[in-house]
């Protein structure tokens, strides 16, 4: 049903993204080096321990500290990994961090990792003889935990191509996991907040079910802005989400829909790409179907204009996981209605009041109404623009510099002549007001450059190269709102404005096509080039094949294999392939003569095209040429035009720019981009290029040196040599670089020295020399009075800075992270402009000079993971300091009393220090908002003065030995997050805690608390309460006291606990809650997750049904619980495993959203009434449920069995019509494989000891063979493991989008076996069966009682089997762990 409504609009950042844990000799060069390079290329900040030396017994503190300061870890487990104590300690620390872990199994089997067998067995045997048993146990637990995670599998035999693919997939996942960046929206909007709130209310985020929303309205009315703002408000609620912009335009390109599908899949779950190959729209749809069925997702599709786009990118409603939301924006209301959108929202024009407010902001740069002089004119303009935000924005900006009433009257008359709401004509008035140069720049951007997603400075380079005042023009266009500059500095043009510009150009050729000035559509360009139709009017052409038709040898072989598979008879495969390749190449090769007549051509993009003929035919007026993917090794001698100003040959095969016969050189060249030309071995003499402004040689990895002439390029402003990894030296003399502003040497790992006369580079502002091999900074650096940024991170040979460093009076950023710095010179105190000083991981640095107190501009000081023992007392003079970070400074035992001078600090990070007491003066930091002291094992208390930190919003003291909180904690009126996890000495909370009215998140897991104060219920804003006990983790840990006798008494919730009406998550595992849960529990109406596992209550209140948005209820190991009452219909997951006294389960008919039901080992449950009605049920685990087995079988309906993916229950049989153990399949001509059902009968011998604590069985494996070779294998993961020895039947259904079905679809042999050796040696596989579901086998949903047995659907036959078979058996004599009353 479609509802339609209408609207009238009215953290400290961690230092590292990823920590790499690996054993150097095993993987450093074969895997780690290319992985590190790819991560760096994609902008990921990576910590890699690169010393490669023999390590001692104790792990370096810097490594543990780096783990704490990383958002995620990639663990590369290789055969010798466990041979290193450092590696094992790293791994244990990583597991303790509770952050993202991405394992790579390099030459090892995950099961060997889990069990520490195979290549790890001997290493652990040796360590158990030499190392403390508790530490070895910790290492084993870490190996088991990581071994249980999904990860990449490869070894030394993995092909280079496959290895590169796996690395790219891993990096993509890293980027996805780390991404949580909101989308940029306009800084000033009108009427947006109210519309967003209306939509948020309509989205009903707390409710289950899937909802499809549509926003429609005319172009320029603000649909995209609304969608972006809505997405930003929703993003924190969805782990899997994607925003796809410009669907209409993107889908119109070659393979556009497939490209968008890949973006959706990559955003939602990048690690799924291992088993997903998207070659066409149908395979993309299947992949999307799989992802949205398994995960709660948020998808926003912006600017959709065709039903096919929805079908390809969205699919069907019934595919989506509970709680998913899809939002579509479009100009076509009918498209939404035709696709059964749940709610259609019209984005209407702004009201007159809102329109006037937006117009005033742009026309007068004020939010208030215009002055009386312009008020009447403004009101008329607002009325004529029809309340369209884009028109108001552009027209208002156009009038901004017009201050005479007469000018406004003239423009108003033009506006009156335009047809009502003809947006493009309104926009054109602003265009007409530009001068001729500005018009030309605008049309270049709108027609050509914007589709290349250029940065602002790149556009400036292009237009400046054409002789225009580019900076002025770009500034004017920005002020007029004809273009915008995104947060990443990309030039953006609204599609309506772009359409206006392109219409102007298309109108040029309306009568005579030869008068068109610019071409951007591929078909039109190919027509012009093949027909030699270019004319003197042609100014710009952009043609980019994006490299997809340029084939290397490996790609050619892939195409040939595909064609051979798809073609029945080929008599000469070699000739056949060559003909295909020839046809491809023929379409890409153009004669240079085709450009001869375009004498005024200025801008030309011909990426990945082949050119033949004399290059003298290229127009001499070409100023900008982008030819990425150029196939020449040396450019032809007649290539060089004297008028080239911007030349981009990046990503090319070029080895040298010109040969000996080249007579002309581009003397007017301003920008030369040769980045990623990996074969480039040398740079020629560039002394003739006297105008060269920018030279980009990034990642030219074959370069070992650069020509000495570069040191004399007086016009050069930017020199980028980043990641030229084999570059060993720079020109000796750089005295000619008097105008150089930016010098980038990042990642030049073999560069050992900077030019000694670099002091002549008087204009230098930025010098990045991080991760180089330089050992010293030239003394001449003192002359660089304009230098603002100096980055020397990772310079492992750099031990000291010159004393003259203090002369750099303009320096704002000085970073020496992970360098070998041993001391800071006292002169550093003279850096009066310094704002950021970063000395992280300087493990040889033991002291900070007192002169640091002179840095009056310093806002951020980071000394994390250094060896400093104290902070200088002068630090109290840093009145501008906002961030102080000294985490993991293990020797730092106290803070100076002068800390009271740091009144501007907002973030203080002291994790892992040796501080035992905080000075009272800390209370003077009155604007401190974030205070972190995690893992401060000496910290036993907080001072009373902590209560004076009135602005504090986050306090993290987890993993400390703190024994009590001061009563003044209740004064922290703005505290939002309090983390006390693993404060195992904390026994009591102060009564004042109830005063924390803004507290949203309280984490206090694994503490010694045994009661909560009666004031606890006063925490009126509390949303998250995590207070689980895990006694088994500390039972054998001598560092913490044993539980007191009182701890064994029952726990009672405070009487006002249920006043916490905003509580969303409650985790109260193992708190010894006994008796009855209070009946007023229903007052906790915001609960979505409730975990009461391992408690001693015997019943739950009937009022539990009133928790209307509760989604997950966990009652594991509640061994005294006897009955389950009626539960809320919103429930998605119910887990009551091991509730051994549970007998009665109330009617479950209303649990229409329930997807998982786990009653494993609830042996006394006699029935599950209403089970047959659970249409959403996907997983049901009834292992050990002997009493209810017969009743449950009778309740399994066709509908239920069609949807269930995993079922476990007592039983010894499965349908006779299943194939035993192995099935051979040949692809059917007209019937596609749609699913696979596997049934397994097994038993567990509990008399055999087992140390593996896995919650399920992983030893059953399904394997696909083709031509006798394994092509795919997967564990048939079985949950619901009983505590008896009796046989159980497990059924697993693999649906059409599962990889197992994908690999069997074209035929093969499928077999079910067990691992050898077994992970769980208690397992005995009794029998197994397989049934393949073909198209049409399980589609019929009607009554089948009168249908012939052979024609019945698979689910109907399964239901008949379960309903009719009494699969009873006698318990085995002496069976272990059998249930007793």
TrEMBL record:
Domain TIR: 14-174
Organism this protein belongs to: Arachis hypogaea (Peanut)
Keywords from the UniProt entry: Leucine-rich repeat, Plant defense, Repeat
Record has Coiled coil as a keyword: no
Record's keyword annotation contains S-adenosyl-L-methionine: no
Lineage, highest ranks first: Eukaryota, Viridiplantae, Streptophyta, Embryophyta, Tracheophyta
PROSITE patterns noted in UniProt: LRR, TIR
One record GO biological process: defense response
Alphabetical list of Pfam families matching this protein: LRR_1, LRR_14, NB-ARC, TIR, WHD_ROQ1
Region (Disordered): 1362-1381
Protein name, UniProt field: TIR domain-containing protein
